[in-house]
Amino acid sequence: MAPSHALRCCKRALNWVPVLFINLVIGWSYYAYVIELCVYTIPNNTERICYLVVFHICLIMFIWSYWKTIWVTPAEPSKAFSLPRVEKDQFEKEERAEVQQEILKKVVRNLPVYTRTAGGAVPYCNSCQVIKPDRCHHCSTCERCVLKMDHHCPWVNNCVGFSNYKFFILFLGYASLYCAVICATVMQYFIKFWKKLLPETHAKFHILFLFFVAALFFISIISLLSYHLWLVAKNRTTIEAFRAPVFTNGPDKNGFSLGFKRNVAEVFGDQAKYWFFPVFSSLGDGHSFVTRLVHIDPETANSILQQNGKRLVKYFE
Ligand SMILES: [Zn+2]
Ligand SMILES: [Zn+2]
């Protein structure tokens, strides 16, 4: 085996460590809750059954959305975004960047690509040899271009993007709920152990830790969830929140926003019955998005940009 290949395999295996860690925590929390709390500590049968039913519903939804986020392959740009053979040959032979840009500009005219790089160039990925659709970015960890890329998440060892963003939000939502249910139901036993009202058994250690770990995870996950819900409402990806997308007529942080209702529908779909299940229901194909500025006349675009404190500058055409 070549050393570079061995190194790559090693890196790939290491990428799974955070996922393994999360799975071990879930496994231990299951044992601590079901066996140590429900079987050994709770004296009342009705309470035990109620807790177990609610706990298992949350756990199933949490694991289901977590696994969907991990295993859904991030969608890549379709063949339509590759250069046609003739242009590709010209592009590869050409060494001058400005002539390469001219070739890309000619091809992009037939594609629904309205964003540009910060320098005003047509976004092209040299590794994947493809014109990047709007909101698409190259992930160096996944070694591919990912449609509507949000970020690469080490906790799921996958890119969060167009194909799994809804699953990711649900994963955060159900993970918070799972932790909240544990905290709420364990609280009274946690206090009883603390006040020494229950016998000193090995369950004590598990229940004390279960409360602390669930509370800690709840606080961190709920903050991340709130941030992503805000991004959904604004129709921005994490990348766009840090750097406003640049359109053919200028940068605009709200360029993809279509109003609260339509922004939410873009991620969760327009049928409420699918919103809370990790099944794909996002709208669109991930390649093209409705943008506020490029489909309207320049005067209206200008007034929108002025509201944002910017002027319409035709600096790319
Ligand atoms: Zn790429
Ligand atoms: Zn990635």
UniProtKB/TrEMBL annotation:
Membrane topology of the entry: Multi-pass membrane protein
InterPro entries per the UniProt record, alphabetical: Palmitoyltrfase_DHHC, PFA4/ZDH16/20/ERF2-like
Pfam family, one: DHHC
Main location: membrane
EC number annotated for this UniProt entry: 2.3.1.225
Keyword Acyltransferase: yes
Tagged with keyword Metal-binding: no
EC primary class: transferase
Keywords from the UniProt entry: Acyltransferase, Membrane, Transferase, Transmembrane, Transmembrane helix
Transmembrane segments: 20-42, 49-67, 167-191, 203-230
Catalyzed reaction equations: L-cysteinyl-[protein] + hexadecanoyl-CoA = S-hexadecanoyl-L-cysteinyl-[protein] + CoA
PROSITE patterns membership: DHHC
Location relative to the cell: Membrane
Gene Ontology cellular-component annotations: membrane
Domain note: The DHHC domain is required for palmitoyltransferase activity.
Protein name, UniProt field: Palmitoyltransferase
Annotated organism of origin: Periophthalmus magnuspinnatus
